[in-house]
Amino acid sequence: MKTPPQALAPSAAAATADGRRRTLLLGLAAASTLPLLQGCFPVVATGVGAGAAMVSDRRTSGTYVEDESIEWKVSGRIRQRFGNTVNVNVTSYNRNVLLTGQAPNATVLGELEGIVAGVEHVRGVINEVVVGPNSTLTARANDALITSNVKARFVDAKRFSAHHVKVVTEANVVFLLGIVTRTEADAAAEVARTSQGVRKVVRVFEFISDDEARRLDNPTGARR
To answer: What is the CATH number of the domain that holds 185?
Structure first.
């Protein structure tokens, strides 16, 4: 039961105000994502932003850039082949490609994996596209809001580095990608599962040992 506004103590009122501001910020983030969602174009990080992202990523810098290239190529080929008859979002992580979205029929659905497999350097395909009508802009905005909320809760939880887990949401289903330890995977899945609006969590992780995680996180390492 919601507490009447007049019954809120000063500290509770401040917390409520903070919550409202945070909701507004998440809503703005979702709205700003809409143009990208409409075109199904992946965002390529550039300049200082890309450098910062690479430093905190467990992928090599070469693989990071390669994943961006794979997303562009796969998205372009799907768009060229099917135009607006499909809504397919492409996420490449460590050269494994996750497909989410909608296809009009099983025939189109079956062609998608072949398109991905034809792109150079792809290691594997996880096809989570479903047969059905393309999602609405409202549904996509809601998914973007869920993604933003899950990422924010990763940071608040402080149980692992939020940089190590990529979040993709489709139809209220959250997909988690990353190169992580079992402990990190369990923590990320728990935070995502308990986030508002999440219907289901799907793990698309690559698992490493604690020792390997420490090695990859060592900024003085020679792997880059």
So the answer is: 3.30.1340.30
E strand or H helix at 186:
helix 182-193
Rounded Cα–Cα distance for residues 224 and 171 (Å)? 36
pTM: 0.75
Residue with tokens 């703005």: 28
Give residues with Cβ within 8 angstroms of 20, minimum separation 6.
none
Domain tally, the chain: 2
**pLDDT, tens digit, for every residue of 123-171?**
999 999 999 999 999 999 999 999 999 999 999 999 999 999 999 999 9
In a domain, 119, yes or no: yes
Same domain, 98 and 141: no
Tell me whether strands 166-170 and 173-180 are parallel, antiparallel or unpaired.
antiparallel
Cα 30 to Cα 155: distance, rounded to the nearest angstrom: 18
Question: pLDDT by residue (tens digit) across 172-199?
Answer: 999 999 999 999 999 999 999 999 999 9
- Which one of 104, 131, 158 terminates a domain? 131
- Nearest-angstrom CA–CA distance, 51 and 63: 13
Whether 102 and 172 share a structural domain: no
Determine the longest span between alpha carbons in the chain, in angstroms.
62
Q: What are phi and psi of 56, to 5 degrees?
A: -90, 0
Q: Which domain holds residue 90?
A: 47-131
